[in-house]
Known about the structure:
This protein has helices spanning 26-35, 97-108, 122-131, 176-186, 196-204, and strands at 16-22, 46-55, 61-66, 69-79, 82-92, 95-96, 119-120, 135-149, 152-161, 164-173. The protein is α+β, with helices and mostly antiparallel strands. The chain is elongated and about 55 Å long.
Amino acid sequence: MSKDKIEIGAISKPRFEFRSFGQNFENAHKRMARFSVPVPEKVWERHSDEIYILSRTNDINNTKIRDGKMDIKTYVQTVDGMEQWNPLMKGEFPIQSSVLTEEVFPAFQVKMPVLSKKEYTYEEFMEMINNHPDLQAVKVHKQRLGYMVNDTICEFGEVLINGAKVLTINSESTEVEDIKKTIKDVGLEGIENINYLQAIKRVIGMINKPLAN
């Protein structure tokens, strides 16, 4: 049976991912660029500004806000060291209090604040986050360069986490074996797989652990 082909920017079935964060992926990035097939111009270089909501009590739900929209993904499983994450919810502001009660704060796995309104603006929601002892909003700017190696979607990026600069490199696909081949080809074998949730927590000191290098 032939495997599904994935395209950068296209919606596919849930993917597995290898990603790491550190200060030096120069050689792996060079090899990734050399091995890459041509990719659409729109993914040559992308910039985005996002807000990640970090919870001290949760490591399985990844919440971010971009362009006024909230996106929560949840961890599903790890296969041969590759993590699979699925969409949990998407929402826009103003956001209904019922959504906060039934979906958002349960995903944070923290004590629910008292809600007195039917809906909340972005500013009101962020005030709740900033006042909560177990939650922290983190500003993340991404500059990403897109590639395609061994039918896996790849990127190399410079990421500013509350202004602290780190580098990231990744390979993702519906096929674990293709990711493993890409890791070997670009020279990332033995490098720790670190997702965004873990990386940001390490940078801001919520987790006492270094990045990959």
